[in-house]
Amino acid sequence: MKISNYHKSKNDEVSLILDWNEIINYDLVYISKVFTNTKVPEEVLKMSNVQYGGTGFFYDKAPPLKYEIEHQMPDYHLYDDWIKQMVLKSRDIKEFDPYLNYSIGFMTRGCFRGCINCVNKNCKKVEYHAPLEEFYDNTRKYIWLLDDNILGYGKWEGIIDQLIATNKPFSFRQGMDLRLITNKRARKLTNCKYKGDYIFAFDNIEDSEIIKDKLKIWKSYCRKTTKLYCFCGFDKTEKYNNNFWKQDIIDLFKRIKILMEYGCIPYIMRHENYKNSPYCGMYNNISRWCNQISFFKKESLREFIFVTDGKNREEKLYASKKYMIEFEKQYPNITKLYFDMKFELLNQYI
């Protein structure tokens, strides 16, 4: 969207290309992708009129946009025609809410955590990136922040105050750092027009004690739904042996149980390497259970997989049952601890 507005400011004609075959008709074509496993034809990338970038191509070494593009107001109408086409094809217009109703951007960039699996692993600190006015469109109902670690920025409160001053509901979509929560920060975040669920992260079981301490603070202020991203399927040692896969499943269950106790919702984020696990099916089962809140709040994992709800779920879950049965035979002590735990029974904040 920034690239589009930059070229429109130079009176260039700009289109969103929806077909690889259209590329030859343009003087210059930009291609980006967020995820490394998104497929782009190699022959397209070799075309003389194509430039490409983004984390999906270069991960943590992705070159930045030119300054004058990076600090350009986004073209919020770039996707209008595409959305119309999708709606004509019976897609629900609500799916495209971010394109239609949100101002989207970063006010800070970077993080100091240095997590090995993260595109920000080479960063050393959180830095100021841009003023709100750079991407804020007053005609749009909401604000969507993509900051990597807003609570790690020394002047975080000033950022929140600027957002509050717009009188628009806003949200940080990347997941905030719960380990940095204090009474002051919790009070500030819960006394503003926050859009949707609060989202944090709980990626390492080693952080369980600090996560529990911070959740006690957070829950003393917040009664809205709170989600925590739970990253799994990634071995920092890169050994990926059976002991890792077993322990990773156990650690994931432990995190889910802790979040149940604090009345929070886990959102399972699987690294693509989980597909190589002998327990790939279990990762899928756990993800489908947790990431559908209506089921997660009412059913244990065992109930979710084995009990029909009158909507033919049983027929659709044949493979899922197989994975559960095989895992239970192999690790009965693990399944005894975790297959039957329920949100409504463990939640201490009902």
Q: Please give the radius of gyration in angstroms.
A: 22 Å
**Approximate strand percentage:** 5-15%
N- to C-terminal distance: 43 Å
The helix/strand order is HEHEHHHHEEEEHEHEHEHEHHHHHHH
Spatial strand arrangement across the major sheet: 3-6-7
Helix content: 25-40%
Task: Compute the number of helices.
Answer: 17
Low-confidence stretches: none
Report the count of strand segments. Answer: 10
Structural class: alpha/beta
Mean pLDDT: 95
Q: What gross morphology would you assign?
A: globular
| Main β-sheet description | 3 strands, parallel
Instruction: Work out the count of structural domains.
Output: 3
In short:
The chain has about 350 residues and is α/β, with parallel strands linked by helices.
List strands and helices in order, with pairings.
Elements: H1 2-8, E1 29-32, H2 42-45, E2 50-53, H3 55-58, H4 67-70, H5 80-88, H6 97-101, E3 102-105, E4 108-109, E5 127-128, E6 142-145, H7 156-165, E7 170-172, H8 183-190, E8 198-201, H9 208-219, E9 226-232, H10 242-261, E10 265-270, H11 280-290, H12 293-296, H13 301-306, H14 313-316, H15 318-330, H16 332-338, H17 343-346
Parallel strand pairs: 1-2, 3-6, 6-7, 8-9, 9-10
Antiparallel strand pairs: 4-5
